[in-house]
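Methods — Computational structure assignment.
A single polypeptide chain was analysed. Its primary sequence is given first, followed by the predicted tertiary structure written as structure tokens.
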Amino acid sequence: MKDHAAPHTMVQDHTRTGPNACYMPGFGNDFETEALPDALPQGQNSPQKCNYGLYAEQLSGTAFTATRPERTWCYRIRPSVKHTSRFTKIDVPYWKSAPNVDPDVISLGQYRWDPVPVGEGALTWITGMRTMTTAGDVNTQVGMAAHIYLVTQSMQDEYFFSADSELLVVPQEGRLRFCTELGVIDLEPKEIAILPRGLVYRVEVLEGPCRGFVCENYGQKFELPGRGPIGANCMANPRDFKSPVAAFEDRDAKSRVVVKWCGQFHETWIGHSPLDVVAWHGNYAAYKYDLRTYSPVGAILFDHPDPSIFTVLTAPSGQPGTANIDFVLFRERWMVAEHSFRPPWYHKNIMSELMGNIYGQYDAKPQGFMPGGVSLHNMMLPHGPDGPAFEGASNTPLKPEKLDNTMSFMFETRFPQHLTEFAAKEAPLQDDYIDCWDGLDKKFDGTPGLK
């Protein structure tokens, strides 16, 4: 077995550092990295013969005629078309794709779940995926699914890629290693990773058990949001997105490759590790981002602004100003607004909001929303602060206050999210969640003035 990275080992430094550290898809930037000297051809992409006897192969993330094409040239030991068996269907019962509308499940309502327990059994990245909601249609590449992952066991001689979607991974507990065709990404809580459509990888447990959240994006890829009047700085900055350096495995072993395609799972077998890309260049790759580098902005005089100012990444739709998916982060920040109700106001809107708690306490729900927990407020369903949050925000003296020890996020989408059977019947649903608003009593007495 020969495992290689820059310079020699798969487990060495695996993300870009130095002056070319940033990577952000969609910005038109190309990057190049090689695990062996002169493995990258110069001056052309597909020479008659590549150095080291490598094969040139392109991975495309957009149509060839896209205004800003996203593609990466890979120089690999074997072309990925080589496999020893036809594809056969397999059953992955807990990983669901849209449309997945269960007639026995009511998705209309305000829902909240305790953390899904990891349990006792051995679970890999594939067998440990638990779909909570789906939206849209994977066959037309529109919409998304939200999952909880539970991983206790590394994949061994087993690899996966999704032809359906890119995956946004949000760890909550434990540490994972994603060994991809383009290099290695180690991931821990307070970080996120994007695994693009079509990229082959193996997931290993560095420190378990592992639990986290996944947004499976069927549609247009995630990118940085437009900042408008905010300007060039704050929010998520491109330089903080890191892509892996080239790493490869030259290893002969019977290996299983699982493919997700149009919501179905298939397997095929090959005689070697598919992670054999010795060098690559392009702008279509996996990347990671440290959520602690997100610089939030907010109101510095009065009122609670829209959550859109906390957008880390957005997957745009064809309708300006309306995203297929927004990934929104609520992290530590100062609250300084005067004469204002500081938590989110009561609202219902066109966007469905699925939230997850990474750690700490969320200010609008000081009780019951635990780290690892999930809540869902579907489109046009009213929601907002619970009784204790309302009373506290209405009566506490308004001094500058630091929201500390808090990090939660939202997968926000324009599509209604349908609960899976697992979410409705097996996951630890809080049946009494709607009771958190019971204390919101009538305060109106017909007398003018503030109460």
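Note: Residues 387-395 form the longest helix (9 residues).
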